[in-house]
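User: Could you write out the 3D structure of this protein bound to glycine? I've included everything you need below.
Assistant: Certainly. Input first, then the structure.
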Amino acid sequence: MNLYLDLNENSYEIIIEPGLLHKADRYLDLDRKVLIVTDEGVPSAYAQSLAEQCLEPVIVTVPQGEDSKSIRVWESLLKTMLENGFKRTDAVVAIGGGVVGDLAGFTAASYMRGVDFYNIPTTVLSQVDSSIGGKTAVNFEGIKNIVGAFYQPKRVLIDTDLLNTLPGRQITNGLAEALKMAACFDEELFALFEKEDPFAHLPEIIEASLKIKKAVVEQDEKEGGIRKALNFGHTIGHGIESFEQLHGLYHGECVALGMIPMCSEEVRGRLVPILEKLGLPVTTCLDRKQVLDAMLHDKKAVEGGVTCVLCETIGHFELKKLDADALLERLSRI
Ligand code: GLY
């Protein structure tokens, strides 16, 4: 199945099909120098398979985890491109999850003012959400995604076979992002999470999530309005994430916790059983003040409060500015 993300001159195809990686050269122009960025958590055979289809591949494997989304690692990728004589007509490909996509995308966006970027996401989280929409970034001074660019890929290959090696916790991590989109935009998808076994419906969930995200990004590429709804669960989630990093919670797990206090009673009553069914956390012993401090450092923090996404009814959302007191009160609901 193909989706076409229509952004005028920045439009691109999203191709969804099992087994795509091994025939990537049918869909991507690999007849040039190609920087393949992957991480230590991704089976090395994936990058190797792509490299065999490239004219001049250069594979860089970064350490797994959020720490690789740094200026230091970004600089090392630029250096590799420079040392290998990459030109503006060459390309960068990400093979990995959200960290690899954000890092490789920002490298592609910045090298020689922009070279072609392709994304081959290998996690549920990146297949349902982060691989499309053009958000690229690294973290800086402890602040997530504070240095980056909107830079759309030239094509995205969603190969659902690549999920076969993922541990269960990584799958639920990504499903949290799909559930976020269902809660705000798609009652039918939310009902699927409620009534069915989501693990048995992964391809369907991925397709439905991509369709939601495509429609949102087409309306609001640079997050002036409706795209903010994709941050549902992220304001508190990012606060918990920076604070909880030592305790090892995954991004989707923090988003799961972050959604709970931003819902009406009615939505919470339907959301929490789904989170429990998926094995996502629904409680945490957190220091509310510390989480609040972390949230107020978030780049979405502005004078007079933080714009939050509230879900009062399934399939709908509301954007509302909450001040520090209101956020503290919300935090007490987890
Ligand atoms: N992951 C949220 C967005 O792309 O806007």
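The mean pLDDT is 94.
User: Perfect, thank you.
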